[in-house]
Amino acid sequence: MIGRQFQHLPVCESTNEIVLQKLETQELSEGAMVLADFQSRGRGQRSTQWESAAGLNLTFTVALEPLLAVHLQFYLNMVASLAVTDCLETQLGQELKVKWPNDIFFKDAKLCGILIQNNLKVNKIQSCAVGIGLNVNQMHFAYQQATSLKAISGKAWNRPELLLALATTLEERYFQLKEGNTSVLKHDYLNRLYRMGEWHQYQDEQGVFKGMISGVEESGHLLLRRKEKITSYDFKELVFL
User: Fold this and answer.
1) Alpha-carbon torsion, ordered 194, 195, 200, 204, to 10 deg
2) Mean pLDDT per segment of 10 residues, for the chain of length 241 residues?
3) Which distant-in-sequence residues (6+ apart) come within 8 Å of 65 by Cβ?
4) Does the residue 1 lie in any domain?
5) Which of 174, 191, 208 is the last residue of a domain?
6) Which helix (H) or strand (E) holds 174?
7) How deeply is 197 buried, as exposed, middle or buried, from its count of CB atoms within 10 A (0-12, 13-18, 19+)?
8) Could you tell me the residue range of the domain that residue 130 belongs to?
9) Contact present, 84 and 188 (Cβ < 8 Å)
10) How many Å apart are CA 185 and CA 176, to the nearest integer?
């Protein structure tokens, strides 16, 4: 299903925006994929700009129609992040982690970013754009805490072959959600969660503190233990140090 309808663009502003617009006009069927060699306005979480050199990486968006209750929307983040780690761990033979909510990390460096935008209708996610930006063959980044498959492995990667492998694992994880296997998704997500069960430095509106990630709520809020107290954080309320 995923990638059966496919559009390849040399350049665009944002593949997510294209998919969202075409979902509104019903020009795309579920599983449609839009790939761009370069995005002039690619975005990450918190409206940050996504840095990606033209023709070296994979920047694409998949259209999904999950008909999912709004309070379960974080499972889409689990689906996408697990699909990427499933695929890349097989390809690399190296362990990867998911930095909450859905950045993919190799050790302490960012390898992939995911941005999911939803269209809501009557308290359900009618459709969504799942945007994935994967650093493949790029070797130099302005952002120091970034890496690529080539930097990790020392070899150049075939992007079309990698895209096909990613479409396969994304479909597998998405069908787990469609079949209601949310417990499997949450279990696997927590097993891959970056810094899970470890003490590290964080910062919130009250300042810097030492905390330990202890889990994720169904809503997607991160649970952090601070001494004997567990605090719940939304996406923009916490900084990893």
Assistant:
1) 50
2) 96 95 94 94 55 86 97 97 98 96 96 96 94 96 91 97 98 98 98 98 96 96 94 95 96
3) 30, 126, 127, 128
4) no
5) 191
6) helix 159-178
7) exposed
8) 6-191
9) no
10) 8
